[in-house]
Give the backbone structure.
Amino acid sequence: MDSAKQPNLRKYFVAALVALLFGFLATVNAHAQIPTGYVKLNASLVTVQTYVDSACVDATQCQYIVTAVDSFGLESVPSNSVVATVPPTGTHTATLTWTETGTVAGYNVYAHQGPKAPLLGSPVEN
């Protein structure tokens, strides 16, 4: 086969490598935005604008942030934090709701573990 007519496989390999590297770096950067002390609560993407955390301790405050995830798996910056006060009634639950701000594949919900977390943005108390 004439070398002038052969596909430039090296060009395709480099383009694929760059795309893979870009995707990896974007994912690393997205996850690096989650503040220290927060842990993800959902195992798979939350696809509605509501999440119920049933692991709260009664008569305490639980603090949360939410991120949006696009169809490529890239995560947005975290929302402002919200503090939910769980009553001493034995419910052990906090229900979070938010509004959709665009087309997303789903959401991740994070709770702060340990001592009271620093508030992100303007906190909203429930």
